[in-house]
Design a protein that fits this description.
The protein is mainly α. It is built from 6 helices and no strands. The protein starts with a helix and ends in a 5-residue tail after the last helix.
Length: 109
């Protein structure tokens, strides 16, 4: 946001809302872009063969470690499931790369 404000010629003292600056510059919200990148990586992982370390679980964290107090941390798998449900996208769509790109595309305003 600092860079976008600088491009528009505003400072924080001007008290211009972030949404107005993003609309003026034509940038999508960062939350949607993060979800798009996470789902894009999920598509890469889904298209890998089952023997790949990413799919077979070699790279997953060990479950032997005792968890601390409080709520458990949000895992990558859980966040992807939440994103798929929120965007109403099927997991099987990831096998078709062109359809997957269209489904996860975040249009710039």
């Amino acid at each position: 946001m600092h860079m976008l404000r600088w491009c528009c010629g505003h400072t924080r003292r001007d008290r211009v809302q972030n949404d107005d600056i993003r609309d003026r510059v034509g940038v999508a919200p960062i939350e949607k872009k993060l979800i798009q990148h996470r789902l894009r990586w999920f598509g890469h992982v889904q298209r890998r063969p089952f023997e790949a370390p990413v799919r077979s679980g070699v790279l997953k964290q060990a479950d032997i470690v005792k968890s601390g107090r409080g709520r458990p941390k949000l895992t990558w798998d859980e966040s992807v499931k939440r994103d798929l449900k929120e965007w109403n996208i099927s997991k099987d769509l990831a096998m078709d790369m062109s359809a997957w790109r269209l489904a996860i595309n975040v249009p710039e305003p």
